[in-house]
Amino acid sequence: MSHFQTREHIADQHKWDPEAIFHDEKTWERAADRVQSRLTGLCTDDITRNPATLAETLDTFFDIKAEFERVDVYATLHSLIDTTDERAQERSGRVDDLRSTLETNRSSIETAIQRTNAERIETMLAESEALSQYGQYLCNLTCQAEHTADAAAEAVISTLTPVLGGNQTYETLLNADLSFPSLEKPNGEQVDITLNNRETLLRSHDRPFRQTVHEQFYDTLNEYRHTIAATFDKHVETAVRTADIRGYDSSLAAALAAENVPAEVYKTLIEVISTNLDPLHEHLQYKRKRLGVDVLRPWDLNVRLVAEDATVPYERAKELVVEAVAPLGEAYQSRLARGFESGWVDVYETPNKIAGAGTIPAYSTEPYIFLNYQNDVNWLFGLTHEAGHAMHAALTSETQPIVYGEFDWFISEVPSTVMEALLVHHILETVEDTALHRTVLDMWLERFRDLLYRRTRYAICEQQMHSHVGDGGQLTPDRLDQFITDGWARINAPVSVDERIAGEWMQAKYLNMWMPFYVYQYATGFSAALSLVTAIREEWDGGSSGEMASRYLHFLRSGSSEYPLALLSEIGVDLRSKKPFEQAVNAYHDALAEYTVLDQP
């Protein structure tokens, strides 16, 4: 069973236990009060007058941050499992207030550091053992000093950004307030369209039913298009104005500079992918022929080429994931298995639970994964992907001090995709089940289509959105429709689009409703991961892991102790070059060729 009416019907091992963090709400409230008191009392004046004062201030701030994370995670777990729980939303509201205060203090501290002569900071680092762990952190701050506003402006930015972003309004609308219609499935069963099951419904082999799902889903969203467009416009304008205040040429430049990623990475990705469309178009044409349709439409894209999706219960999925990571070594395998058994995962769909899947990569607690598991290969991949994020968080927090405990977003999609690629190899090479092989390889082809091409299409669209607002324009529904339509024509030429698909932006939160210019990192992370898995498997003898696996685990344990491109370079991946992206394109072609052989009757 993959959908439950209440959480009480779910076995304890399949759901989160927030009380493992705080055993009751009163304990949580006392911790929140303590964080608030400590933040209020934190002195950020003249902190660079000597090394001891700076070290003490940083130690105190990051200790408060560690305590805040526990408060935050507890509130987050409760709010995600029931988006209509008003008490949970109140706790989340208080956490947002605490976060704003925390970020105001961070801003004051970092602005003071950036206003101090860089040579003075270097001298203090050389003189003070207590500051030694903050070396990379301080160097990064001094490098960004020219793009830091004055203390008052930075304090205002840190306070207003959560308010102006628009993402909370968007998430509440989609997950709590918006209701989709009920449909009759081809077998006569009634089903409600939800954000969680829409893609599953679109995998139906009944084409008229798929078209109905597509049309009713977008028709429902279309009733709110002006509201959703307003939240997008607010979010993008916040990013654009913040970048302008800090002296960046654009919001894209600001987003990339935060992790020292050169613009050539973004441009190279778009150039290589948008000029190497043959594997995607061959895949789409093959799908059209296999489906027996004259014209491929948007509601055809999710259909699996296999006649029937393989069934993968959650317990079997866990086994497959743990088995698949053997090339990374026994220590990695056992840590993953222990995480699965210690409450990492909230598995099944329940009413008002947040849609989709995700990971809360906390430093001060265990990582937490939310799923809406549906007993199929799609959700097997979802579990695998999120387990990669969770392991990255766990290994980082177990190794690094908290100042480097948050790994850079630029590399965050690498571990998740490494896990997926290892899963595919494991199933194809060791599991004797031809039907599962076809299903997994079909799913893997969809990952290329999604992560490499669709996310790059979104990256192009997002850049257009930000450029439009940066030039003084507004993100109206019609303008957003046009960006999406242009992207489909540019990337997905074999697909004949309808007018509704222009509204894809309304449900594509990856475009920017969480973090500006995040979506391109799925494509860069996917490309980097494929290169890494090839190297790791070349050294694996079926028993012991090799040197490349050891280097990769060091990468996972590094957090943000080095810049992300430097960390990738240490394990042989250069995302400033075309090579990883071209290799990914070639891998797509090879996977399609392998599938067409396997797919012969």
UniProtKB/TrEMBL annotation:
All residue ranges annotated as the Peptidase M3A/M3B catalytic domain in the record: 201-585
Enzyme Commission number(s) from the entry: 3.4.-.-
Pfam families named among the record's database cross-references: Peptidase_M3, Peptidase_M3_N
Residue intervals of the Oligopeptidase F N-terminal domain: 114-180
InterPro entries, A to Z: OligopepF_N_dom (IPR013647), OligoPept_F_C (IPR042088), Pept_M3A_M3B (IPR045090), Pept_M3A_M3B_dom (IPR001567)
Entry keyword Zinc: yes
Gene Ontology MF terms: metal ion binding; metallopeptidase activity
Keyword Zinc applies: yes
Cofactor or coenzyme needed: Zn(2+)
Keyword list, A-Z: Hydrolase, Metal-binding, Metalloprotease, Protease, Zinc
Record-level GO BP terms: proteolysis
Protein name (database record): M3 family oligoendopeptidase
Organism whose genome encodes this protein: Halocatena marina
Biological classification of the source: Archaea, Methanobacteriati, Methanobacteriota, Stenosarchaea group, Halobacteria
